[in-house]
Amino acid sequence: MSIIGKTDVVAEAVAACLENELSVAVVKSNVARTVDVLALGTTAGRAAKSQMLDAALAGQNLSIATTDVTTVPGEAFVEPTWVLGLVLSPFKAEVGAHANRLTPSAARTGIVDTLLRTSTGVVGLNSNSWALAAAGEVLLRGLDRPRILVLGTGGTTHSALLGLARAHPDAELFVSGRRPEATCRLAERYGVTAVAPADTAEVEPSVVINATTWGETDESEASPFGFPAGELFAPGRILFDLNNRHSALQIQALAAGCAVMSGTLMQRITHACRAAGAAWALDQQAKGE
């Protein structure tokens, strides 16, 4: 997928996601409809109130009717009434077991960030891989054979490695995490190079992607960052911090002369994929499918 030169990055990414994951085209309904939303995760309440989610739904002529916030995955599937499920940390890896089917990227990664309930069951969707690839392509435009270091071993890292390989087949990809076994499993699964946190500076990455939860909240920044940020950041390098806020890590990278992107564009694209998916799910329900 190439979005360089395209005028609407979000729309192009959504179209690619729906075509490849659900085998459908994006069709906006002219009829205003409401959607019941499930928000699953430790920060799910905040995600469900996102202005970006509201805007994405409005773009599909949708609005939220009710919101069910929970941190117990099993409860969400007992007599569900929701149509759209927002899946956040730490449940992206386990919630797929509750779905009736997984889309290709969800099956490849084992990671589900969105649930869509139709008349015939629940579909587990991975939209993050498409969102990250599209946002990353904007950020990495013009870089030849970038050396990309992904920090973290959680669900978002799976999506990041899949999306980056899809959008940048010429890139050299590295992954590092505080859990050596998890890091090695990721490296083997996606065919990338595993690096110990203490050795990450030796990679001399042109791009650093923070896929950890460090920086997600003020509280998360109270503990030390698990990687030598001072050695990773240098003039001309890029930090792509997937957290959707102005974090201390971003401030440090800017001071070191790095170009910086937060997770905002990626989140916009994720929500737009979710909204288009919700519209599809409502259409499927209307047809009894």
From TrEMBL:
What InterPro entries has UniProt attached to this entry? NAD(P)-bd_dom_sf, Shikimate_DH_fam
Gene Ontology molecular function, alphabetical: NADP binding; shikimate 3-dehydrogenase (NADP+) activity
What Gene Ontology terms describe where this protein resides (cellular component)?
cytosol
Q: Which SUPFAM superfamilies match?
A: NAD(P)-binding Rossmann-fold domains (SSF51735)
Give the GO biological process terms: chorismate biosynthetic process; shikimate metabolic process
Its name, as the record gives it, is Putative shikimate dehydrogenase
Q: Which organism is it from?
A: Gordonia alkanivorans NBRC 16433
